[in-house]
Design goal:
The complex is a heterodimer of chains A (321) and B (281).
Chain A: E1 5-16, E2 24-36, E3 41-45, H1 52-59, E4 67-72, E5 75-76, E6 94-97, H2 111-123, H3 127-141, H4 157-170, E7 175-179, H5 187-204, E8 207-211, H6 215-221, E9 224-229, E10 232-238, H7 239-244, H8 249-256, E11 308-311, E12 314-316
Parallel strand pairs in A: 3-8, 3-9, 6-7, 7-8
Antiparallel strand pairs in A: 1-2, 1-4, 4-5, 9-10, 10-12, 11-12
Helix pairs in contact in A: 2-3, 2-4, 3-4, 4-5
Chain B: H1 2-14, H2 16-38, H3 70-106, H4 108-123, H5 126-137, H6 141-167, H7 171-178, H8 183-219, H9 231-239, H10 248-275
Helix pairs in contact in B: 1-2, 2-3, 2-10, 3-4, 3-6, 3-8, 4-6, 5-6, 6-8, 7-8, 8-9, 8-10, 9-10
The chains are: A alpha/beta (321), B mainly alpha (281).
């Protein structure tokens, strides 16, 4: 099966400490490679600041990568500047649902206008065709038609989330990036929105890249999982493999932080101490997790571990996996 | 739309001072439009026999040293003073908003260049700068407008720049990019409409300042020249007569000038309440 999205050695470096000549290089996304098959849901997990948001914005072509390739179908999107990407035919094919649905709707747009914007621009729909398509999308995402005339500040969190989803699927993308779509919602609403997303995936045959902090949600809906730490992928593989037999110490620590309801008293949990290493001018020889890793050994400071197979389709970047 | 109207009515009736300011505004607009036809006397007609008469039923605001009716002159002057203020505010508004939008959105060298220009203007005491501009360019109404616009320009740039920079990486801008908006569409279709209400408030607030500035320039003898009726000149003409007891010559134009500034500042506050969605109930 050919991949829908194939990311190869993607890198994003931000210059920091300005004054014209940049002194530091912040490695936000460093040498990241993975692929997403058509119809597949891939989870992307990792702590705040690990580069998830930067990575998805590179893929959504909102930012330009420093190096690497983004193969989408037959085209390499990495070579196209983000500035001109709005006019590319590929623009419609990759869409995104934002974490803060309220903030992602222009405060001067009604729900109708928010959903209609991509249809006008990318599909050239006008008049009754536009009206019909927006109503169709409202029905598909469970927005009462009566609410289409409302402004974002007049909508509830769940309704805003639905508007954000309706807008994202309006132009029939092939890849939908979900950037913590439920993080800002009430628990009860989270479930409803997740159900809606799963339902839409099935009906529209979408591929999802699902960024989340919630391991339990990832376990539930993702086919494969990618774990990021300080700009690098430390582990990836099928969900059951990665979450069932985590090979990287960071993944183990991440999983142990998930609260569980069990009758037995919980066993010892690996806890992470200390602060993450700085992403600015990182030593290319030292494992990014070294210093915080409970299993760290001197070898970890001598060479950077590379992603290598630890099981079927399961890769981990640790010398001792 | 209906809701907006209801909100405007709420803001106006909530505070009687605001309602008073709105009433004054209507009065000033009418005076500016109809002033010359409403004036009971010819504002230029001097009559030595009637010089320096105190306020009476015939001459509500009294007469000046040349026997001209002060009420008529104050009324007729509204058009000129308003025209100067409005055109300078429009100029500063248009150029300031565009420059601030560009600085905030493009950043980098553009931001630096515009920022330094604004700093340079702000480095001068603004009224002295306005005096300098009018003195250098010549004593005309056009140059008063220009000078007033230039000293107001930095205020617009700073507000527009800050509001743009704050919004340019907002979620709805990213969403607009995903929806196929190019840079121009983002700038003029997304950012501009969102900062425009704030700029309108700014315009209303600087309007009073512009009136005061224009009158101030005329007061010190720059800009509008006698015998043109203009509030600043009239105050200047009456200033010397205060000591000898002819208080009405300076008082009435000064009072109207003060009311005009007062009116626009209050309206600016009300407009801010109308525009700010957080103040909506």
């Amino acid at each position: 099966m050919t991949a829908l999205l194939d990311v190869i050695n993607l890198q994003k470096i931000y210059p920091v400490g300005g004054g014209g000549k940049a002194r530091g290089q912040l490695h936000a996304v460093d040498d990241v490679s993975f692929s997403i098959a058509p119809g597949e849901t891939v989870g992307l997990v990792g702590e705040s600041g690990c580069g998830k948001s930067t990575l998805v914005r590179l893929l959504a072509r909102l930012h330009d990568p420093t190096a690497g390739a983004i193969h989408f179908g037959d085209t390499d999107l990495a070579g196209m500047k983000a500035r001109g990407f709005a006019r590319r035919p590929e623009r419609a094919a990759i869409q995104m649902v934002f974490q803060d649905a309220g903030e992602s709707i222009n405060p001067r747009y009604t729900a109708f206008e928010a959903i209609a914007a991509p249809l006008r621009r990318l599909r050239g729909l006008r008049g009754t065709a536009l009206q019909q398509r927006v109503e169709e999308l409202a029905d598909a995402t469970g927005i009462p038609r009566a609410l289409l005339g409302r402004f974002p500040h007049q909508l509830s969190g769940g309704q805003k989330a639905r508007v954000g989803i309706a807008r994202a699927i309006a132009v029939e993308p092939r890849l939908l990036i979900l950037d913590e779509p439920t993080a800002a919602l009430d628990v009860s609403v989270q479930v409803v929105i997740l159900k809606l997303l799963m339902d839409l995936r099935q009906r529209l045959g979408l591929s999802y890249l699902f960024v989340s902090h919630d391991i339990n949600v990832v376990r539930l809906i993702c086919d494969r999982v990618i774990v990021m730490y300080l700009g690098k992928i430390v582990e990836q593989g099928p969900t059951a493999e990665v979450l069932g037999r985590p090979a990287h110490p960071y993944t183990r620590a991440l999983l142990s932080a998930v609260p569980e309801l069990t009758l037995e008293p919980p066993g010892p949990r690996p806890r992470l101490g200390g602060e993450p290493r700085s992403p600015i001018n990182p030593d290319p020889k030292v494992c990014r997790f070294f210093g915080r890793c409970p299993d760290g050994r001197p070898a970890c400071a001598d060479s950077m571990p590379r992603l290598s197979p630890v099981g079927p389709g399961h890769l981990a970047a640790c010398h001792f996996a | 739309m209906n809701e907006t109207l209801r909100h405007v009515r709420h803001v106006l009736t909530e505070n009687p001072v605001t309602l008073g300011a709105a009433g004054l505004f209507v009065f000033f607009v009418l005076a500016a439009l109809l002033g010359p036809s409403l004036a009971p006397y010819d504002p230029f007609a001097s009559d030595a026999a009637r010089a320096l008469q105190p306020p009476s039923l015939r001459h509500w605001f009294g007469t000046d040293a040349l026997g001209r009716d002060i009420f008529s002159r104050v009324l007729v002057a509204t058009r000129l003073d308003m025209a100067i203020a409005v055109s300078s505010v429009i100029l500063a508004f248009a150029f300031g908003t565009l420059a601030g939008l560009a600085a905030g959105f493009l950043g980098g060298a553009t931001d630096q260049a515009i920022g330094r220009l604004v700093d340079t203007i702000m480095a001068f005491p603004l009224f002295v700068l306005a005096m300098g501009i009018v003195a250098a360019l010549g004593n005309t109404v056009t140059n008063i407008v220009l000078a007033t616009a230039i000293i107001n320009f930095p205020l617009y740039v700073r507000v527009a720049r800050a509001e743009t920079a704050q919004r340019k990486s907002a979620g709805f801008i990213e969403a607009a990019r995903l929806s196929g908006d190019g840079e121009t569409a983002i700038l003029f279709g997304q950012l501009l409409p969102n900062i425009l209400p704030i700029m309108m408030v700014q315009a209303s607030l600087t309007m009073g300042y512009a009136i005061l500035n224009a009158a101030g320039l005329s007061f010190i003898g720059l800009g509008v020249r006698p015998p043109t009726p203009e509030w600043g000149i009239m105050v200047a003409e009456g200033a010397g007569l205060m000591i000898s007891g002819e208080w009405w010559v300076a008082l009435f134009p000064g009072l109207v000038l003060m009311l005009a500034v007062f009116c626009f500042n209050l309206l600016g506050d009300a407009l801010r309440d109308i525009v700010d969605p957080r103040r909506r109930s």
